[in-house]
Amino acid sequence: MPGLLLNTLRGENSGKRPIWLMRQAGRYLPEYRALRAEKGGFLALVYDTDAAAEITLQPIRRFGFDGAILFSDILIVPYAMGQNLEFLAGEGPKLSPRLVDHALEGLTAVPERLSPIYDTVAKVRASLDTDKTMLGFAGSPWTVATYMVAGEGSRDQHETRAMAYRDPAAFQAIIDGIVDVTVEYLSGQIAAGAEAVQLFDSWSGSLAPAQFEKWVVAPNARIVERVRALHPQTPIIGFPKGAGEKLAAYARETGVDAVGVDETIDPIWAARELPEGMPVQGNLDPLLLLSGGAELEKQAHAVLDAFAARPHVFNLGHGIGQHTPIAHVEDLLRVVRTWQRQA
Ligand code: CP3
């Protein structure tokens, strides 16, 4: 029996809100930190499929969220495309050679770097209750490209934005390569048991409108079309963080089944402007989960009220912060689960 989260992503509004949190598996959980210390680095955890399955399940055991999101990373795709990947403590991810000074054609693909991730999905699905939804994910081409080009995270993605203007043909080839591997990666996750998938476009907010159409909307639309042709039953959530008012065009033009809304967007605006009946996900400010208290409850109610007339998956506007107190997550769950729409 599909659970509340999957039904909501399929367009049902039962009045009850499913909840999961982006980055729900991770450093704010002591059980994650313990396993990470035991196994070494982040990538070692991702490729130890028993450990990765265990980490995926940790937040479900502790909080009973409606969805379990695969423990992996968006940068597994560049790793499978042949870049070296390292997560250095305190420095974030490093990819080499960086494509700002190395041609894409010079990379040798390593597709076997994807298959362990599918094993993790299968292991999680096998031990997850049937009313919980297994969520797969990938990064969107623009966001993944910003790491591949610069070799690391950057504040405003300027090297990648400059390359896209300077050499659109070379940049298009990078995007096309990411699209192909992402379709394969998501299809593999779905075949292994993922029941819905999310496309994370964390840096879509840095693009001018015409570039947003070209590098966010168009490649996401191609991924959606191809994944849907292979897996028509699997809802696809698109999350173009920072899209602002461009979220409405993204929702209409990419073909995604549901959209993630970040915390900078007024949920009343989103409820009004997004296509009628489209499920939405979001959008509590993660900092409220850090600070807690009466304001957390008040703002969670505002989100619940604003999205009451639509299928709505409760979530944050972006990932949960590593210093978030566990007690505040428990408070939020209580608020969301006991909320009833005021007549
Ligand atoms: O949501 C989840 O719990 C599932 C797992 C997940 C991770 N990364 C695990 C992770 C997901 C969905 C991601 C997505 C991801 N990864 C994004 C898009 C979403 C977003 O947050 O904007 C991006 C941009 C990345 C790339 C990435 N991975 C960065 C920049 C970093 C370093 C910064 C940081 O937060 O530590 C990572 C590492 C990473 N990915 C960690 C986790 C749990 C932390 C690893 C550790 O030190 O233990």
TrEMBL record:
- Give a GO molecular function annotation for the protein: uroporphyrinogen decarboxylase activity
Which species is listed as the source?
Answer: Novosphingobium mathurense
Main site of residence? cytoplasm
One GO-annotated biological process of the protein: protoporphyrinogen IX biosynthetic process from glutamate
Q: Which reaction does it catalyse?
A: uroporphyrinogen III + 4 H(+) = coproporphyrinogen III + 4 CO2
State what protein this is by name. Answer: Uroporphyrinogen decarboxylase
Pathway involvement?
Answer: Porphyrin-containing compound metabolism; protoporphyrin-IX biosynthesis; coproporphyrinogen-III from 5-aminolevulinate: step 4/4
Q: EC? A: 4.1.1.37
Q: Where does substrate bind?
A: R23, Q24, A25, G26, R27, D73, Y147, S202, H318
NCBIfam families in alphabetical order: hemE
Task: Name the PROSITE patterns for this protein.
Answer: UROD_1, UROD_2
